[in-house]
């Protein structure tokens, strides 16, 4: 994640927001060793003028290529991820386009499904304990189990929803956000996963089905963002879901 964007919710106060979207493609016969820069260029999956920001990692266990335009490709056995930070207009993202190109150029792989994985990170520059307190004091019910140990309790939350079109997994974690001056601040990381398998009736049209699902990634992202803003950061009966330190 590399871009600050405003989360238009007055309850957050002074904060930093970053957003990212990744498209993960699962295939049983995917070999990371084949994902080289030349292969991506010569097959037409990426434009030939894309430049790397650093030496790629390429072997049979993992492939990682980071491009200067913000697109990152990460492959492991059985899966490949195309991810990119949202800088201004989500419609300008290249990662989903590259993911669809990958499907088009490799139509005969044994694809199993895809996952649209949005992330929203919210950092609080002046509230060191805000992220931890939100998880422990707001999302979790109080009890004696929180009083164990010699340091304040830390926790993460994993939620699973069954939406009409697909399952959604949502993780909420306390993290540290590195600042340009090498300091770090408390932050909340919301990680989502909209998972699409291939229905039986599309077994002969796997790439077409998955490509269509990738093309509607913005619907998933907006659903995810709406859940975060309206279900987690909304007011309830005139009060915030956040503890006072986040106001």
Walk me through the topology.
Elements: E1 16-27, H1 37-42, E2 57-58, E3 63-66, E4 72-76, E5 79-85, H2 95-105, E6 111-124, H3 130-139, E7 157-162, E8 167-178, E9 184-197, H4 206-215, H5 217-232, E10 235-236, E11 239-240
Antiparallel strand pairs: 1-5, 1-6, 2-3, 3-4, 4-5, 6-9, 7-8, 8-9, 10-11
Characterise this structure:
- The chain is an alpha+beta fold and about 250 residues long.
- Helix content is about 20%, strand content about 30%.
- It is built from 5 helices and 11 strands; from the N terminus they run βαββββαβαβββααββ.
- It has helices spanning about 35-40, 95-105, 130-140, 205-215, 215-230, and strands at about 15-25, 55-60, 65, 70-75, 80-85, 110-125, 155-160, 165-180, 185-195, 235, 240.
- The strands form 2 sheets. Strands 2-3-4-5-1-6-9-8-7 form a 9-stranded antiparallel sheet. A two-stranded antiparallel sheet has the order 10-11.
- β2 and β3 (about 65) form a beta hairpin.
- α2 (about 95-105) packs antiparallel against α4.
- The model is unreliable at about 1-10 and about 235-245 (pLDDT under 50).
